[in-house]
Amino acid sequence: MSQGAGDLRKSGRLELHIPVRVRCKETDGTEWAELTHLIDVTQLGAAFTLEHPIAAGRILHLSLPLPWRLRQYDHSEELYRIYALVRWIRPA
């Protein structure tokens, strides 16, 4: 794990390239899903890229085979399913 000089996270990032299925329900009621891969994770967050435009504050549903040591619950399930709040974005 590494933590850069400008990184304010309490724990370092772990590079972890695993698949993640992202689902989103937009304000207008439309829904979309996309398969992508994690770039890195901490116990409280994850970084990944999306083809769909997204804004900070959006709620996403993630499904991924996250290692049990990084989970908050469902340690024995094959897939970790969690709702996530988008806190930060970096446009491509």
What does this structure look like?
By secondary structure, the protein is mainly beta. Helices cover 0% and strands 40% of the residues. It has no helices and 6 strands. The chain has strands at residues 14-15, 19-25, 31-42, 45-48, 59-64, 80-85. Strands 1, 2, 3, 4, 5 and 6 form a 6-stranded antiparallel beta sheet that branches. Residues 1-5 have low confidence and may be disordered.
Offer a quick outline of the entry.
By secondary structure, the chain is mainly beta. The chain has strands at residues 14-15, 19-25, 31-42, 45-48, 59-64, 80-85. The chain is globular, with a radius of gyration of 14 Å.
Defining traits:
92 residues; globular; mainly beta
Through-space gap between termini: 25 Å
Q: How many whole angstroms does the radius of gyration measure?
A: 14 Å
Structural class: mainly beta
H-E order: EEEEEE
Summarize the biggest pleated sheet: 6 strands, antiparallel
Shape: globular
Q: DSSP strand (E) fraction?
A: 35-45%
- Parts with pLDDT < 50 across at least 5 consecutive residues: 1-5
State the helix count.
0
Mean pLDDT: 88
* Helical content class: under 10%
Count of DSSP E strands?
Answer: 6
